[in-house]
Model the fold of this input.
Amino acid sequence: MDTKEKSDVFQKRIDNGEKIEPKDWMPERYRKQLIRMMSQHAHSEIVGMLPEGNWITRAPSLKRKMVLLAKVQDEAGHGLYLYSATETLGVKRKDLVEDYLYGKAKYSSIFNYPTLTYADICVIGWLVDGAAIVNQTMLAKSSYGPYARANLRICKEESFHKKQGYEMLAKMAGGTPEQQKMAQDAVNRWWWPTLMMFGPPDEESPNSAELITWAVKTKTNDELRQSFVDRTVMEARKIGVTLPDPDLKYNEETGHWEYGEIPWDEFWRVIKGDGPMNRERLKARRKAYEEGAWVREAAMEYARKKKYREGKAS
Ligand code: 3HC
Done:
């Protein structure tokens, strides 16, 4: 078959809801899109450990410290699942990591904001992981097998992340006046950046149409954002925090919550590297990567020697 015929067969497989596996034929563009999206997802998980890691030593109790430690460890695991899934597309982890550390690849805008108080940790669990669940539940049905399976596993842990954040925030929102103020201040600062996590508006999303044709994504950025807003408005009311959007109103006809204008100029500024914490995040990750080089070299040398010994023995 020529490439056109192979692409037609490929599209039929996608339309039939089949999973594409690493050894299957796939258009080069499909492979490139997957590498872009999956590696940036993995980078986001790893960079996402920094804002929360900032509060591990300052958690208000041993229990909160343990819960936060477990969550941050989970995020590291999510990054590893996703790097492993991306490597099935014939790329090297070293290249992927160095792409974001020193060059062009992105990670999620949301992790370029500072965690100013402990309430930020509660709100990240509730809002940021809540948004991630909406997105990753969809990605668990992605046409690329390894990516779908990685997201399936991630979603199970994300629901714990969201629940623990929501439970902690409910405690603060029902606590002393200082705690209530701290909780509301964190919600005010994280609400709009969380809506930006889903990506630009559909009409400004160059990748969405292609990703949907290939069922890598099955919903658009705006559809996911809307589904997140609809479920979060009620959760906010339940614990007595206010979402900082005076234009929020329920549309009886559509059954959706309409929301105000998202500050897109801030979004594009942050993803171009000019957010509140972009420089600190990359500096911290570069330092860890460079200081950890000896561990990678030792592990590679050990693996090489082991392979050599096994080769000699057989
Ligand atoms: N942060 C950074 N860059 C973003 C972005 C965001 N929130 N939203 C969009 N972009 C970038 C895109 O990467 C693209 O740039 P590129 O072509 O150079 O990669 C450009 O803006 C245009 O966006 P599109 O809508 O055309 O891009 P996509 O169709 O790929 O949609 C996406 C963007 C929604 C992030 C999608 O790629 C996606 O769903 N990725 C997988 C999930 C993911 O990465 N989530 C990040 C959060 S991880 C997390 O929350 C961890 C949890 O444990 C807390």
